[in-house]
């Protein structure tokens, strides 16, 4: 695409290169100088670690054809100056890839917990409704049956518009994506034309990044603001009516919203809950009908995720029969209350709870079904919200008979310091600190008695442990299975 055509949609306040823009053929757009090739347009982004403006020379050496910048840069290449390179990147990517989000049906999901789960539930419903779906989220990106690893739950705008284009080319009609608060704050979803947006809930997380809960809520509300205000469009916000922050979300958008929840005020609500150890059923009440749903997902919190998915399906006029069938067929979400069962006489459950609220929710659920003790193995990630650490330890102590506090992803922090943050205030003997996560899992398994439940929390589907920038293979499910089998063999031979 010609550069002058590409930049037409930008809010340019200065360029030193009007005449030079005419003859430049842009092959691709890059925000990372290390990926620049011949005829790349390099966009300088001010990051949290470094300022992309520093890398203009590298981009030039790698063959960039022009630069988009906010601050003055020293280069022989044509420079287009814009007030916000983050916004410009999204506008450029959207145009370069043919505005793919316009003709796709896009559902964006935000909230502290439940985004990935709701994404999977909706994907199941849309597929049952014969739609061709794609998912972008924490576990990976899925286009049809193919999966692609992602570095972030919500990738940057360049990646997004490029892959939305690819999805369209591959016949996808519906995209379900998670929108993290970091992504919303950093403008990663700029330019994505969402049709439906969903709010699950808001509780403490990421207070290392956001100033306080209000600031965190504001970041989430940007997804609702992004619906725009063109009333001719049929857009909708789906909001958890029972959450304290629901008003912040509904007020951020002029479009109508569907409140879901367990209270009478909700528009889509659940009644007659039946929560079993391995299944859940309840009646769904919509303004038009009432029907029963059955799911293999357990825990009251999952009823909220199911209601969120049903509310979106309701907006798309998907029949209750299709919703019921899809929900019955969904076995679970990888790493969310995932059972590791090789026939041992105690339960082992791997879950992604890595916030105080999610840990409390999961442990409450397990307490309702427990026959004997609960043993929790949990740690907290390094380089993340320190203030959630003691709260996660408290939740574990409150709801477990034994807590084994261990490492999660230490990243650049010393695991001992993280564990000190978690346990410094604790007294008593209902917990142990075992820094090595493998050892902690081993100890839990060798300590378990018949009927106990072991919860291994925090890493869920993750298949690595991140230490000082390196990711080593680590899978809670594999490790648990190894030790369960080891113990079973040992007991058979004695
Ligand atoms: C703290 C944070 O959010 N960082 C994100 C951010 O990177 P950054 O601001 O640190 O980038 P930077 O290193 O300062 O670089 C600035 C610019 O210089 C460029 N650069 C840099 C070096 C160079 O040699 N040349 C060059 O051009 C970079 O490409 C970039 O454009 O922008 C990047 C691109 O979008 C993200 O990948 C990166 O996510 C990091 C990896 C991360 O760990 N983020 C976490 C906190 C996160 O975003 N998590 C949420 C989920 C959270 C949840 O809901 O639980 C997520 O969506 O993943
Ligand atoms: N609606 C909910 N309310 C509270 N806790 C939940 C809810 N849904 C799931 N959880 C808990 O939170 C954990 C993470 O769930 P899920 O992956 O669906 O959330 P997420 O919002 O995608 O999280 P992340 O921000 O890390 O991507 C689950 O393993 C479970 O313990
Ligand atoms: N998206 C979350 C994932 C946390 C998962 C947990 N295992 C950790 O490493 O803290 C984050 O980046 O904060
Ligand atoms: Mg997620």
Automatic annotation (TrEMBL):
<dbReference type="InterPro" id="IPR004101">
    <property type="entry name" value="Mur_ligase_C"/>
</dbReference>
<keyword id="KW-0133">Cell shape</keyword>
<feature type="binding site">
    <location>
        <position position="384"/>
    </location>
    <ligand>
        <name>meso-2,6-diaminopimelate</name>
    </ligand>
</feature>
<feature type="short sequence motif" description="Meso-diaminopimelate recognition motif">
    <location>
        <begin position="408"/>
        <end position="411"/>
    </location>
</feature>
<dbReference type="GO" id="GO:0008765">
    <property type="term" value="F:UDP-N-acetylmuramoylalanyl-D-glutamate-2,6-diaminopimelate ligase activity"/>
</dbReference>
<dbReference type="GO" id="GO:0000287">
    <property type="term" value="F:magnesium ion binding"/>
</dbReference>
<dbReference type="Pfam" id="PF08245">
    <property type="entry name" value="Mur_ligase_M"/>
</dbReference>
<dbReference type="GO" id="GO:0005524">
    <property type="term" value="F:ATP binding"/>
</dbReference>
<feature type="binding site">
    <location>
        <position position="462"/>
    </location>
    <ligand>
        <name>meso-2,6-diaminopimelate</name>
    </ligand>
</feature>
<feature type="domain" description="Mur ligase C-terminal">
    <location>
        <begin position="335"/>
        <end position="460"/>
    </location>
</feature>
<feature type="binding site">
    <location>
        <position position="458"/>
    </location>
    <ligand>
        <name>meso-2,6-diaminopimelate</name>
    </ligand>
</feature>
<dbReference type="InterPro" id="IPR036615">
    <property type="entry name" value="Mur_ligase_C_dom_sf"/>
</dbReference>
<dbReference type="GO" id="GO:0008360">
    <property type="term" value="P:regulation of cell shape"/>
</dbReference>
<feature type="domain" description="Mur ligase central">
    <location>
        <begin position="109"/>
        <end position="313"/>
    </location>
</feature>
<dbReference type="GO" id="GO:0005737">
    <property type="term" value="C:cytoplasm"/>
</dbReference>
<keyword id="KW-0132">Cell division</keyword>
<dbReference type="InterPro" id="IPR005761">
    <property type="entry name" value="UDP-N-AcMur-Glu-dNH2Pim_ligase"/>
</dbReference>
<feature type="binding site">
    <location>
        <position position="188"/>
    </location>
    <ligand>
        <name>UDP-N-acetyl-alpha-D-muramoyl-L-alanyl-D-glutamate</name>
    </ligand>
</feature>
<keyword id="KW-0460">Magnesium</keyword>
<dbReference type="GO" id="GO:0071555">
    <property type="term" value="P:cell wall organization"/>
</dbReference>
<comment type="similarity">
    <text>Belongs to the MurCDEF family. MurE subfamily.</text>
</comment>
<keyword id="KW-0067">ATP-binding</keyword>
<protein>
    <recommendedName>
        <fullName>UDP-N-acetylmuramoyl-L-alanyl-D-glutamate--2,6-diaminopimelate ligase</fullName>
        <ecNumber>6.3.2.13</ecNumber>
    </recommendedName>
</protein>
<keyword id="KW-0961">Cell wall biogenesis/degradation</keyword>
<dbReference type="Pfam" id="PF01225">
    <property type="entry name" value="Mur_ligase"/>
</dbReference>
<keyword id="KW-0131">Cell cycle</keyword>
<feature type="binding site">
    <location>
        <position position="180"/>
    </location>
    <ligand>
        <name>UDP-N-acetyl-alpha-D-muramoyl-L-alanyl-D-glutamate</name>
    </ligand>
</feature>
<keyword id="KW-0547">Nucleotide-binding</keyword>
<keyword id="KW-0436">Ligase</keyword>
<dbReference type="InterPro" id="IPR000713">
    <property type="entry name" value="Mur_ligase_N"/>
</dbReference>
<feature type="binding site">
    <location>
        <begin position="408"/>
        <end position="411"/>
    </location>
    <ligand>
        <name>meso-2,6-diaminopimelate</name>
    </ligand>
</feature>
<dbReference type="Pfam" id="PF02875">
    <property type="entry name" value="Mur_ligase_C"/>
</dbReference>
<dbReference type="GO" id="GO:0009252">
    <property type="term" value="P:peptidoglycan biosynthetic process"/>
</dbReference>
<dbReference type="InterPro" id="IPR035911">
    <property type="entry name" value="MurE/MurF_N"/>
</dbReference>
<dbReference type="GO" id="GO:0051301">
    <property type="term" value="P:cell division"/>
</dbReference>
<feature type="domain" description="Mur ligase N-terminal catalytic">
    <location>
        <begin position="26"/>
        <end position="97"/>
    </location>
</feature>
<feature type="binding site">
    <location>
        <position position="186"/>
    </location>
    <ligand>
        <name>UDP-N-acetyl-alpha-D-muramoyl-L-alanyl-D-glutamate</name>
    </ligand>
</feature>
<dbReference type="InterPro" id="IPR013221">
    <property type="entry name" value="Mur_ligase_cen"/>
</dbReference>
<keyword id="KW-0573">Peptidoglycan synthesis</keyword>
<feature type="binding site">
    <location>
        <begin position="111"/>
        <end position="117"/>
    </location>
    <ligand>
        <name>ATP</name>
    </ligand>
</feature>
<feature type="binding site">
    <location>
        <begin position="153"/>
        <end position="154"/>
    </location>
    <ligand>
        <name>UDP-N-acetyl-alpha-D-muramoyl-L-alanyl-D-glutamate</name>
    </ligand>
</feature>
<comment type="pathway">
    <text>Cell wall biogenesis; peptidoglycan biosynthesis.</text>
</comment>
């Amino acid at each position: 695409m010609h550069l002058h055509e590409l930049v037409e949609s930008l809010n340019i306040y200065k360029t030193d290169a009007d005449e030079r823009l005419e003859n430049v053929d842009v092959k691709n757009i890059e925000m990372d100088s290390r990926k620049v090739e011949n005829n790349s347009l390099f966009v300088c982004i001010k990051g949290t670690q470094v300022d992309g403006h520093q890398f203009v020379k590298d981009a030039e050496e790698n063959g960039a054809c022009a630069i988009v910048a906010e601050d003055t840069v020293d280069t022989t290449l044509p420079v287009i100056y814009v007030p916000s390179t983050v916004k410009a990147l999204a506008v450029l990517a959207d145009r370069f890839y043919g505005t793919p989000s316009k003709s796709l049906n896009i559902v964006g999901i935000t909230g502290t917990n439940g985004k990935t789960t709701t994404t999977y539930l909706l994907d199941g419903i849309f597929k049952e409704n014969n739609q061709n779906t794609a998912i972008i989220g924490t576990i990976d990106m899925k286009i049809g049956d193919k999966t692609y690893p992602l570095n972030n739950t919500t990738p940057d705008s360049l990646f997004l518009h490029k892959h939305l284009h690819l999805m369209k080319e591959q016949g996808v009609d519906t995209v379900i994506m998670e929108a993290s608060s970091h992504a919303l704050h950093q403008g990663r979803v700029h330019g994505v034309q969402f049709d439906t947006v969903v709010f699950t809930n808001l509780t403490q997380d990421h207070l290392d990044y956001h100033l306080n809960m209000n600031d965190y809520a504001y970041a989430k509300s940007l997804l609702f603001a992004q619906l725009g205000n063109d009333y001719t469009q049929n857009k909708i916000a789906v909001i958890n009516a029972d959450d304290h922050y629901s008003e912040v979300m509904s007020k951020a958008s002029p479009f109508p919203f569907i409140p879901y929840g367990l209270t009478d005020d909700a528009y889509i609500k659940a009644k007659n809950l039946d929560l079993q150890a391995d299944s859940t059923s309840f009646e769904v009440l919509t303004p038009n009908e009432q029907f029963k749903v059955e799911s293999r997902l357990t825990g009251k919190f999952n009823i909220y995720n199911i209601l969120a998915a049903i509310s979106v399906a309701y907006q798309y006029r998907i029949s209750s029969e299709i919703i019921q069938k899809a929900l019955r067929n969904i076995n679970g979400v990888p790493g969310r209350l995932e059972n590791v069962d090789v026939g041992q006489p105690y339960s082992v459950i791997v879950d992604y709870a890595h916030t105080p609220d999610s840990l409390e929710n999961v442990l409450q659920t397990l307490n309702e079904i427990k026959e004997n003790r609960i043993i929790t193995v949990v740690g907290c990630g390094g380089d993340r919200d320190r203030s959630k650490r003691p709260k996660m330890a408290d939740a574990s102590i409150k709801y477990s008979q034994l807590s084994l506090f261990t490492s999660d992803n230490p990243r650049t922090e010393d695991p001992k310091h993280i564990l000190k943050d978690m346990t410094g205030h604790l007294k008593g003997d209902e917990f142990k600190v075992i820094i090595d996560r493998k050892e902690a899992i081993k100890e839990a398994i060798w300590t378990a008695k018949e009927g106990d439940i072991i919860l291994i929390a925090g890493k869920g589907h993750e298949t690595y442990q991140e230490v000082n920038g390196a990711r080593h293979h680590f899978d809670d499910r594999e490790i648990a299975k190894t030790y369960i089998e080891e113990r079973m063999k040992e007991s058979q031979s004695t």
